[in-house]
Fold these 4 entries.
Entry 1:
Amino acid sequence: MIQNKKNDMHFPQVESEENKQGEDIEVDEENLPSQAMATHEHIRQEGEKELERDVWALLWSAIAAGLSMSASLMAKGIFHAELGHFSGSMLIESIGYTFGFIIVIMAHQQLFTENTITPVLSVMQKPTANNLYLLLRLWAVVLLGNLIGTTIAAWAFGYMPVFDPSIKLAFHDIGMKVMENTPTQMFAKAVVSGWIVATMVWMLPSAGNAKILVILLMTWLIAVADTTHIVVGTIEVLYLVFTGALPWQSFIWPFAIPTLLGNICGGTFIFALLSHAQIRMDMQKDHSASVEHRDGKH
């Protein structure tokens, strides 16, 4: 007999109703008090799966995501170089920013800013020491993997003979524009981008066949609002570091630390907290109707 994963001591286990009862629980949307609660449960259960994944699986997925996110700088740089400067060119150029997000999300790769809401809901529902440990483990592994992937991509963009000088100049201009921000601006803009990414994650379960459109519109908004994002921005800033335009310490400060903290605040402490708060009363009012055992359908 194949041993169930949740009973295997080698796998981390989230403290939740599913694991407590020892069986899968399915969201019964028809009997839930609100559609918001149905969305919350879908995202929470997906987050529980991520919290229980093997560290190496998470790391490789995160590295792949970091590499994939280079498509955002690549496409935006090409558009920047080819379009030139005219009224409204930035609106078109910003479409390029969406490419990396579309690849990462549709390929189910691990992106740090997605994880500022998805697994957080599980921890908010059961804020135990074990669940908090699993969340911090997930964040550390995914962030490390994303940074490894983006570092490789930034080095390749700077040193491999792939792009024309005009496109490399565009990469330089994009990175320097990010570095025009003060640490306070880095943080504030990152709060906005973290909130937008979390909003997008909240919308995806009900997006159906329009998922790509939702990703495109929400991440395009991140670009046109000129916000900062820890993963995309790492590629943009490290490109400057590898080409000698910036010292290494400029990546850490004023960019990385304020941007990381801002993304976490926007995604976790603002959006995830508010999203959990809005359905907390629904859960207390009718918790027995929020989920249904699969066996009960027969």
Entry 2:
Amino acid sequence: MARIAWITDSTSCITQEEAKELGIHIIPVSVIMEDKIYKDGVDITPDEFYAKLETVSELPKTSQPTVGEFSDFYEVLKHSYDCGIAIHVSEKFSGTINGSRLGAEMADFPVHIVDSKILSESMKQLLLKGKKLESEGLEAQEIAAMLRETADHVKGYVCIGSLEQLRKGGRLSGASFLVGNLLQIKPILTFDDGSLVPFEKIRTLKKAESRVLALFEEAAESKGAYGVSVVYSGSSEKAEDWLHLLREKYPHITFNLGQLSPAIGVHVGAGTLGLLWFEEGV
């Protein structure tokens, strides 16, 4: 069997310790904050980032890995592996996928690219599924095709902590939905074929959060939700409450908890809370 290198970027929110344990190679996104450049998950942890975010006078920025960085990354990997499977943040959010593809070509290392069409913990779930398929003896090309199919059935609904950061970062499609007095609405956003788009306007945060939970409950009961993740940025208190609630109500479903990485936090701010999952039979 071919030796497969499992690759992702730091928007997957996998820690360095988890990556080592799982046998996953992470290329970090850069976070620029107060004229300093930090490698996401390497030079700065989520807790450190969100603490700094409260004090900065200017919104941070991100920079995707360059083609040259990807090429160097793959030059190292090709000495130990026959090919790679790279699962990256949605192509609608970032040019990371294209950089990965071009870097692999420069390094002459065969890499099967998978657009997760989402971010965060759902990318980790795809990686874990892929490694399971590998353990069952499937070839890399077949595994990648199956993961792309799975990514087509990813769902997610989020209440964003900072709409202003999201707007300035240009990561929100259909932003005209939000025109008006933003202070009077708490919009729920969803993922549509890799894009983050407005879903519903809700008058209070409490009602918005209840609506997200209701959307998941509908999917869990009718569409076989799995690989479910509660994601948050900043304080984990409310996310942990959701996790406890969901585990009690759906003991047959595995739920995961993940803090959004600095590379995502730059765009959504602290206080973001959401649910991500995959659906069966759709």
Entry 3:
Amino acid sequence: MSRADEQSPTARPGSPGEVAPGGGGSAVDDTGREAGPAPRPAGGGWRAVFGYWFAVYKRIWRSTVISSFLAPLLYLAGMGYGLGALIDSGDRTAVPGVPYVAFVATGLVAAQAMMTASAETTYNVFGAIKWLHTYDAMLVTPLRVVDLVRGHLVYVLMRLTLVAGVFVGVALALRAMDGPLALAAVPAAVLGGLAFATPIYAFSATLDSEQGFNVLQRFIIMPLFLFSGTFFPLAQLPVALQVFGWVSPLTHTVALTRALGLGPDSALWIEPWRFAVHVAYLVLWAGVGYLLAVRALRRRMVV
């Protein structure tokens, strides 16, 4: 039975909304003539989906202040300034040539992008499928599955840009970042967040229970947060953990945000070819994750 059949099970012959014989999905208009199928959006259906998520965010933005802004600033104050004051003494620093507060700040902006991407593509996606049936309602309209994914990811990009922009602005004001290239750390962090958002979206679209998110947070997100170079150089870890760290998109994001946040005169600046490798790796994660997200949601929502 088509969606049109389900929408108008009692439609009288010749009445508006009657499904034409043959199951083609066409309707009969007020004059009794067969109307064509409802038009599909011409590539812009994602804007309507983005508008929905943006409208939701405008209602709940206050609840995101602590997780998106205050928590990373507390990490910066505690780890950067508090612990940094203990391990940096005189001319000696924990990381040669770099104050520890600057080392932590340039890593935290990348880590916060990962956290934000995870938050926006776990329960929001699962709830739209399982609890609120938001996606069901959207798919009754001319919107397509790909519109749902694109619109949601554009909203995630907005959230990532907002979070990373505020963090970099505060870090610049506190002198934890320096140099004209520091603002370029924002798009680097956004790209890193997108490299997490798309595969997590695909994962969320396959779950039947929210318990899977506990596994994701405890065994993937938190270990990556700790062992991807955010708080100490990756080279200080055992070889097995170094391999784990370099597989992580967060390590590559941290390398970009740290180089850009500290500038070309810092000891952690990287060569142009390394920039290209890090960017390509993150684009690969984001692109493959996007394809998997569309495939997973289509399998889940389209019978």
Entry 4:
Amino acid sequence: MQKQNILFNLDDTLAYCNRYFAQVIDKFAEQMTVWFDSVSIDEFKRKQLEIDIKAIGKHGLASARFPESFVGTYNFFCDLTGREKKKEETDYLRQLGNQVFEIPVEPIPYMNETLTALKEEGHELYLHTGGDEANQQRKIAQLELTAYFENRIFISEHKDTTALSDILKTIDADPSMTWMVGNSLRTDIVPALEKNINAIYIPAESEWAYNVVDIELEPKSAFFTVNALHEVPDVIHRHIDGEGRF
């Protein structure tokens, strides 16, 4: 079997992530209704998402951006309603937002089995994850991912086509034998297609709005969508054997 170079995303590809952010956002919105009883939960969530996504352009996927989106939403509605801003309340919101980075990480079903199978077949596995160094290294350690990726781990605060291009230059791999596996259309799939490497899209159980974009380019390499992580080895095998389809 031809050796492949397979890059995996981490959050919501190998381990759950969005479900925990959603839980913390629910707590945030519920608390905000106590302070602003004339505003709906949906309004708080829409404003938080707007502020959070807007900050990515400046701060990338750094963890501090998320709790600050809670504070920014609070400040917006204080200004809108004339409510006094209180330091103890903004301190509470930052603490609440940071809780998501303290939750023990949970692997996606068959994570270990999938990575073990690919490793034992001789494929070179890489991890390309978005976020800040400290938080992503916490997850990597808890999941013991160095057993599969060793030092082939790349963490990008701005996870985009430029970041992927830099990685591909570093590993100097044949694009026809290189894959990106991930749940994010924006940060995993579109960059892979723009760099003409193979891509496998695994939709997350619930997706962050930032990750959802239209694919406007015609794939020049293999592009598959699967329902679950454990399907990845078979898709790659069939493609190598000439049985896969775009």
